[in-house]
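Before surveying the methods themselves, we first show a specimen of the format, giving the amino acid sequence and backbone structure tokens:

:::
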Amino acid sequence: MWLFFLTMGDPAPVKRPIDEDWISRIAVGDMEALQRLYAAVGDSVYSFALSLVRDPHDAEDVLQESFLRICRAAADYRPQGKPLAWVFTIVRHTAMDKHRQTARILPVEEVAVDVSDVADADDRLFLHALLNRLSAEDRQILILHVAAGMKHREIAAVMDMPLGTVLSRYRRALNRLKTIAKEEALYDQQAM
């Protein structure tokens, strides 16, 4: 019953990234609020799920299951000004459950990262390769901050890490990406 929101037409335009009122409306079965939430964070939820489970099909399952869990847990939500952190905590727990179910651990080289928003195919391949050279946690922090637009404090809550650790891992991930990109550029110049 709840899954049909994915196939319905576009919801009304979202004015804010996420509104706590949507969650209370979801708790009473308001499908428009669910559509708005999905439109606002669905892509970010999928990207985060993909960074956790490392398989596009499993990430889709986590996306669906996360929204089902959001619907079931909406009545228990207590507004604290951090609805995005609440959503991503549910996604993280759902992904961990999925990971335990499938018990698949892929080497870092095989990790799938959603880079479909990048227009040029060569740029997508390059970005995919760069991101997959980061550790799983560093990649997750980077995706949550850049793709989902979460604040470092929210990421710390979602990933159950101290804020200082999240900040240092984020900086380390950016520096690592810069280093890798420079190495690749030098390699390309030498190959010519």
Remarks:
- The chain has two domains: 14-107, 117-192.
